[in-house]
Amino acid sequence: VTHSQHASRRIDQFDVVAFDADDTLWRSEDTFRYAEQRFLELVGPYAANGVDVEEVLHEVERADISVAGYGVKAFTLSMVRAAVRATDGRVPSLVVAELAELGRSMLLDDVHLLPHVVEVLETVSPSVRTVLITKGDLVHQTRKVTTSGIDHHFTDIEIVLEKDPDTYTRIVQRLGVEPDRFLMIGNSVRSDVLPVLAIGGHAIHVPYHITWEHERVDDHGVELIEFASIADVPIWLGLSDL
Amino acid sequence: VTHSQHASRRIDQFDVVAFDADDTLWRSEDTFRYAEQRFLELVGPYAANGVDVEEVLHEVERADISVAGYGVKAFTLSMVRAAVRATDGRVPSLVVAELAELGRSMLLDDVHLLPHVVEVLETVSPSVRTVLITKGDLVHQTRKVTTSGIDHHFTDIEIVLEKDPDTYTRIVQRLGVEPDRFLMIGNSVRSDVLPVLAIGGHAIHVPYHITWEHERVDDHGVELIEFASIADVPIWLGLSDL
Predict the structure, then answer these.
(1) In terms of CB atoms within 10 Å, which end of chain B has fewer, N or C?
(2) Could you report the per-residue pLDDT of A85-109, keeping only the tens digit for each?
(3) Taking the model in full, what pTM does it have?
(4) CB contact under 8 A, A107 and B161
């Protein structure tokens, strides 16, 4: 890998390296897509004439985000509301209960780490203060962190409502780090990259094969550091010659 | 009020005064009780023979807390599951949708401050670093804080998963305060008092007329500072001769 040949120890430019969690360290979006698929199978047969069940679900989801936020519980309540709306109430309540169970099982799902995550954290965390910054539900994110088997790599775990510049400002202040010495790594341009650059920090984009629709930023007009794999991060930091 | 006559400025013993929010600063439990009442009215008529609908709801709630946590979204999902279970699926899905709407309206409810809260914060917050520590859902608690009209009194707002000694230890470390100079005020002995005393802090119990069943501690065997009204707090701190 050529760009590692002359790598200085870029790690020395940073006091804190922060990782996003969902779809950066472990799979998340996949389970939502699976749940949507089940929703279509379960609710589709009862759909009112001419109704696009998937479109109703997305409409209800969009309307609910500002009220209930991101995360599995909000999504499950959206499925319940959408099922009844898309079928004018014809969906049996036993099917609705199955949607609620589906959400419950998502909350209890095992964590599936993405490839190379363990090695990357084992390489990075001994060299610099390593933290985790994730958006979403306190209960579910806490469960995932504590059952992930990788939580010992992080000195701090921040579960936040929204990843905007104000949130990142609060976090760097809490951590006592200058924005210029703060590096964020994540799969979302909107949540992990742009707001960090906005406060004068550094960010690396590691795209996930699925990017959630609400996470897309079409025209950000910023030059990004983007890696195909999280395994490139320690190389870029000068920590590895893999 | 006699105990204020010779009050020293007890406030000088503290670097941080922290307030709980739900049922300490604003009403919360009332809305859950109202929702339970609506649940019984809506679901009761479809109950299976010999089933105690209220008991089923409480059973489902208890089973769901460890999975979904506290808060309105978890409670709403419990109502959905309990409605179907208590009726063997006979409850119409339109009724289930009404339960989901009920939860949604709880998330959007106006904040109802409790009596004397504004005056207490206006008296306390200019004299000492004043923070808010609340348990529950990030989205809902954040909405309540930001629409409460009292958020400017707090230098820090901590929304936590569980109020146990570990959590309080993390908070006092973050705030950079010695436990002995930290005072917590709240309506729950289990969440606001005992864990704070356990880490060497101070706590005042201001009971709310409703205490949630899961919040009760029957035999704590600790002598508590307990006030009938939050208005007694500034008097005890030596800040007021009201």
Answers:
(1) N
(2) 999 999 999 999 999 999 999 999 9
(3) 0.88
(4) no
